[in-house]
Specification:
elongated
Length: 81
Amino acid sequence: MSALPFSAAHKHYIKSLYKHTLENEHIWVICYDLYRVCTELTSSPFCSEEIFTVPVCSALAVILEKAEEELARKCHPGPYI
């Protein structure tokens, strides 16, 4: 199965969600070594080919909605600015 051609806006949305997730991990984790482990666990859903090759748009929407909910649930109450 070949990858579906997603729009630039779609790719930007996924990259933005990934960036916000990593920034949130950086705020929560103080030790850099532990931060590296957390980022590896966090990056696995974003780095998988599944997020770019899901044949049904509704399935992709479910995956991205789950990522947004997890980010909202783990959001730091006092983010570092």
